[in-house]
Automatic annotation (TrEMBL):
Residue stretches making up the Glycoside hydrolase family 20 catalytic domain: 181-512
Family (UniProt): Belongs to the glycosyl hydrolase 20 family.
Substrates-to-products reaction catalysed: Hydrolysis of terminal non-reducing N-acetyl-D-hexosamine residues in N-acetyl-beta-D-hexosaminides
Entry coiled-coil feature ranges: none
Enzyme Commission no: 3.2.1.52
Domain of life: Eukaryota
GO biological process: carbohydrate metabolic process
InterPro entries: Beta_hexosaminidase_sua/sub (IPR025705), GH (IPR017853), GH20_Enzymes (IPR052764), Glyco_hydro_20_cat (IPR015883), Hex-like_dom2 (IPR029018), HEX_bac_N (IPR015882)
Gene Ontology terms for molecular function: beta-N-acetylhexosaminidase activity
Classification of source organism: Eukaryota, Fungi, Dikarya, Basidiomycota, Agaricomycotina
Active site: 344 (proton donor)
Native source species: Cristinia sonorae
Domain Beta-hexosaminidase bacterial type N-terminal: 27-176
Name by which UniProt lists this protein: beta-N-acetylhexosaminidase
Length: 693
């Protein structure tokens, strides 16, 4: 890995030497580049750089152009070796001066940018570079924002190359996305995530010009032995969750019994605001009338007989109950669309289903002005059809209508085809879905060998694909599901699945598949991704921490309750310590804790995402035990008293419905913030964390 990175930096050094002649490849690629023919004609970023916002445009939009500019300043500062960049200014014109480099952000409503289908988009931008200035111009603030992502990526690549100068070639970049919707979905209904982690995911995805984060916020584990069968009441205890927390005294408060696994309005709105300030819209999903066990556990009288995860739409109370849920939470959401799920319902009840979708479409629009989306589903009705105002999110053949037929019939469609775009948390079923988007399939697996793009729905049948210019193809959303819950996957393991997947998806969802001459090749992507992943600003999902010669910290003695400056350390790392528990509490308390994990004394048990993972080792009383924890993104193990033969792995037992049992390795971040606690009695010494496993 270190050799590969050295080669990469060397390649970037060569690229930087000729940066005056070309832009470096980035993710996603830009649409059009026209550069000056003058040799060495460049704009140089320096400590004196000024970010100036056109005062006539500064307040436009929500977030405003000025809001975006402030985030841009912070990001540019974080990816370069420059000293602190000056605060953002406003001015009525570009006041670039010699030896005083200026980045000027402005809006020109007359500028026109188009998607591949010819529809206008506010997300395009022009980036015009001279010796003294870079001017970013768009028709709306969001377009300027995406232009700043191009600048930040180019600066990050130059800074990583080892060059002492960060320069940009003189000329013009014109860029716009190929599709309107470029999103990712996370199943947060079956795996609990705090908003701080989800916010970091938003910020990371934004770096690759992804503009939507679809939150699948209600669902249940699917276990047929618990759900179905006459007289079966196992459904009452099957895990089901709803993540939005009703206000105090709300009539629907019984919907959320797990208050500690739900988001308050303030938490959600804070996340929503930060995502918006990075160009990402949160699209919430409350899934009904299928996947509704959480509602039926609250109100059993609403369930379909023999199917506790289905609502019975013929019960008079059912639809008013669903409307009351939306009434509570619609005011939380700033998105122009929401998802009502509406997939995998009983095909025999097609008319009931279609009537429900259309009624909810009208109701939500009347209450909030918002449109709705539904997952593609089988609706074999000969009398009714879903309203054309509803967007269909395709995910499978043949469970839903064929997407090309839907578009031909006038429906707006989003591509989430599982053959290309589905991931799942760790599971014992090896062939369920991959842990990362299939790179071979994404780059070259579609008919014709040109790789995947949002207009590609089938890897085998070209007749199921459409033209990039189809006016009813809105774009694409990749998805990461947690069908089997969160016992086998920590939140950082979810990020490891998404990190590279989001970047390659960002390239394809913005630029398509060999549609533009500037589109990345797989080799170009592989070369720049590690640098951009490491540089992505505004978050620290890699849990990178300062170190000296690879040593994060080294304490001879740790005091119970002592805190450090390090919240968490991402793998690979080695954490070493010696411990002697006292006889008063030989199996109680914490050894270490951090923002991502804790290590308990009892059985040397790791805790992450609310789950416990015991090593099964008991620390002896009255004697010191040396423990060395080695972690990578694939596993975590301990070596006791320097005896390599005692290598023990932290694992979890995975299963499908109590069968097909399998053991999976766990990856944990180092719990580096606090020593001792929660009743621990004893001593800890020789505590160190070193990068590398």
């Amino acid at each position: 890995m270190h050799i590969a990175f050295t080669l990469l930096v060397g390649a970037l050094c060569l690229a930087t030497d000729v940066l005056g002649a070309s832009l470096q490849p980035q993710i996603p690629s830009v649409a059009s580049v026209s550069l000056s023919s003058a040799s060495g004609d460049v704009f140089q970023l320096s400590e004196l750089v000024r970010i100036v916002v056109d005062s006539k445009s500064a307040a436009k939009g929500s977030p405003s152009l000025l809001d975006f500019a402030k985030v841009f300043r912070n990001d540019l500062n974080s990816v370069t070796f420059l000293k602190t960049i000056l605060p953002v200014e406003t001015s009525s014109h570009n006041i670039a001066l010699p030896n005083l480099p200026t980045i000027f952000l402005t809006i020109d409503p007359k500028k026109q940018f188009k998607l591949f289908n010819g529809k206008p988009t506010d997300e395009g931008y022009e980036l015009t570079t001279s010796r003294n200035s870079i001017v970013v111009t768009a028709s709306a603030p969001i377009g300027v924002w995406w232009g700043t992502r191009t600048i930040v990526q180019q600066a990050a690549l130059a800074a990583a190359s080892g060059s002492k100068k960060i320069t940009f070639p003189v000329g013009k970049v014109t860029d716009a996305p190929g599709w309107e919707v470029r999103g990712f979905m996370l199943d947060v209904g079956r795996h609990w995530f705090e908003t701080d982690f989800l916010t970091e995911l938003c910020v990371y995805a934004s770096f690759f010009k992804i503009n939507e984060f679809h939150l699948h916020a209600s669902d249940n584990l699917w276990n047929p032995d618990f759900l179905y069968g006459e007289g079966n009441e196992g459904w009452k205890n099957l895990y089901a969750a709803f993540r939005f927390q009703p206000g105090h005294g709300s009539p629907i408060s019984g919907l959320v019994p797990r208050k500690n696994e739900s988001w308050t309005q303030n938490d959600f709105r804070s996340m929503q605001t930060t995502c918006a300030q990075h160009g990402v819209t949160l699209v919430p999903e409350i899934d009904t009338p299928g996947h509704s066990l959480v509602i039926n556990q609250w109100k059993p009288q609403l369930m379909e007989r023999g199917a506790p995860d289905h609502l019975n739409l013929s019960v008079p109370e059912t639809i008013p109950t669903i409307k009351s849920i939306w009434d509570e939470f619609l005011p939380w959401f700033t998105s122009s669309e929401v998802s009502i799920g509406a997939d995998e319902y009983d095909a025999k009840l097609a008319d009931d289903y279609i009537g429900f979708v259309n009624e909810m479409s009208s109701y939500i629009h009347q209450k909030s002005g918002k449109s709705i989306r539904v997952w593609g589903t089988n609706e074999p009705s000969t009398t009714l059809s879903i309203s054309k105002n509803v967007t269909i999110q395709h995910w499978d053949f043949p469970a839903d209508d064929i997407p090309t037929r839907l578009m031909d019939a006038g429906y707006q469609v989003i591509n989430s085809e599982q053959a290309f775009l589905y991931l799942d948390g760790k599971t014992s079923l090896d062939n369920q879905f991959p842990q990362e988007l299939n790179q071979d399939l994404i780059w070259s697996g579609a008919p014709g060998g040109k790789g995947w793009a949002p207009n590609i729905f089938s890897p085998t049948d070209p007749s199921n694909n459409t033209n990039i210019r189809n006016p009813n193809l809105r774009g694409s959303i990749m998805a990461l599901w947690n069908d089997w819950g969160n016992n086998a996957t920590t939140r950082l393991e979810i990020y490891y699945q998404l990190s590279r997947s989001l970047a390659v998806f960002g390239e394809k969802a913005w630029s398509g598949s060999e549609v533009r001459d500037t589109a990345l090749t797989r080799a170009q992507f592989d070369a720049v991704y590690p640098v951009l992943n490491a540089a992505a600003p505004g978050q620290n999902l890699n849990r990178v921490v300062p170190s000296r010669n690879g040593v994060v910290y080294n304490f001879n003695l740790g005091f119970n309750g002592q805190t450090t400056h390090v919240d968490s350390v991402g793998p690979p790392y080695t954490m070493t310590f010696s411990v002697i528990p006292s006889s008063r509490s030989p199996s109680q308390g914490l050894l270490f804790s951090g923002i991502d994990s804790k290590l308990h004394v009892a059985n040397l048990t790791f805790e992450a995402t609310g789950k416990l993972y015991p090593l099964g080792y008991t620390l002896p009383l009255g004697k010191w035990t040396k423990v060395a924890i080695h972690a990578t993104r694939e596993y975590t193990y301990a070596v006791i008293n320097d005896d390599a033969s005692t290598k023990r792995f932290w694992t979890t037992t995975m299963d499908l419905w109590g069968s097909e049992m399998a053991v999976g390795n766990m990856s944990f971040a180092a719990p580096s913030k606090t020593f001792g606690g929660d009743g621990f009695s004893g001593s800890i010494k020789d505590i160190s964390i070193v990068l590398g496993a």
